[in-house]
Design a protein that fits this description.
- Two copies of one chain form a homodimer.
- A four-stranded antiparallel sheet of chain A has the order 1-2-4-3, sandwiched between helices.
- The first copy, chain A, has a domain at 3-83 and 124-187: NADH Oxidase, CATH 3.40.109.
- In chain A, helix 2 (24-35) crosses helix 7.
- Chain A is built from nine helices and four strands.
- Chain A is α+β, with helices and mostly antiparallel strands.
- At the A-B interface, helix 1, helix 2, strand 1, helix 5 and helix 7 of A face helix 1, helix 2, strand 1, helix 5 and helix 7 of B.
Chain lengths: 210, 210
């Protein structure tokens, strides 16, 4: 099946069947696709939490407007952006490039200066927004990967971010939650959207001429 | 080849070979993947411009820091978010759902109220930011689709947005440019990154435990 067919198959699943469990291998493949996702300057200024513990999922559900997918999913992927792009975090990235490519950190000084400059020109809120946006690219990649694996996923930005951060003590990790992506299998009988026609703008409305 | 292999193959191409032309069919498939991309409440609050005219590309290049991919690419995809989520735009979306699913607009009043509410609670800058973020999901989907098609792409957020908007008169369309994605083929001889090892955080650093 082509990627286009897979993307046509997927939708923001509203009801998942808790009795159907996504194999760990598929969850790992989706996580790997997210890991390979593009980000500005390759910085990947976010972390993932992959929550599978039922008790924790039950605690998360109320801060996500009690959406049923949170607990019916096999796993909940939380995209959490860095709160601040600290010099330590940037240094660690430079060290990773140096070690992976077998080059000196000194040879990466120009590139490091570019990252430092991109961060320095932004106030803290704008810098966070820029990092949060990178998580959206990762979400787009993750949704495509889930579709390819035949796994249902629901992109969610509507939840109480501050309450989730407090519940999971994300500030201690220097993180702020941005997006949720439960992974599971649609409940075709219960989900009114499962059989609904996918609605997208026609291509000649999406793509505009100059 | 699996999606993971394709994602490993792709990278932010710095030098493209202008003599290699991406078939129109592949550009259309990538555009179609973007069209199918997820967005908050399905609103798709952005448009695409797919620029292939060499003269226009040459004019765009200076506002994108003279990056060579702009003119060496077969096509430049511009992601431009709505400047304002006007009632007309929201109504048009509701009409599209009604006509695609064969239901009345009245039956969608609750859903429309949800969209109106989501927009109303944001000031104009925050609403724009929310719409711009949806374009990042679309970029993530588009990059995955390009990789699957074996087409090189370069995600770019670093360009002079205001100058590009003015050059292309995007304000007349109620749009503001957010992201660029040139599509072409890597020039392996000229691009120092073509043979460089892909650098990504190890999975046990990206995925953090509670």
């Amino acid at each position: 099946m082509s990627l286009i067919e897979k993307l046509n198959w997927r939708y923001a699943t509203k009801q998942m069947d808790a009795s159907k469990v996504v194999p760990q291998e598929k969850i790992d493949t989706i996580t790997e696709a997210i890991r390979l996702s593009a980000s500005s300057m390759g910085l990947q200024p976010y972390n993932l939490l992959v929550i599978q513990d039922k008790e924790t999922l039950a605690k998360i559900q109320p801060v996500a407007y009690n959406q049923p997918q949170i607990t019916a999913a096999t796993a909940l992927v939380i995209f959490a952006a860095w709160d601040v792009a600290t010099p330590e975090r940037i240094n660690k990235y430079i060290q990773l490039i140096a070690s992976e490519r077998g080059v000196s950190e000194e040879s990466l000084a120009g590139f490091k200066g570019m990252i430092d400059g991109a961060v320095a020109k932004l106030d803290e809120a704008s810098a966070f927004n820029w990092m949060a946006r990178q998580a959206y690219i990762a979400l787009g990649t993750g949704l495509a990967a889930a579709a390819v694996e035949g796994v249902d996923a629901t992109p969610m930005e509507g939840f109480n971010n501050a309450a989730l951060d407090e519940l999971l003590n994300l500030s201690a990790k220097g993180l702020k939650s941005v997006l949720l992506m439960p992974l599971g299998y649609r409940d075709e009988a219960k989900d009114y959207l499962a059989k609904a026609k996918k609605v997208r703008k026609p291509v000649d409305e999406l793509v505009v001429a100059l």
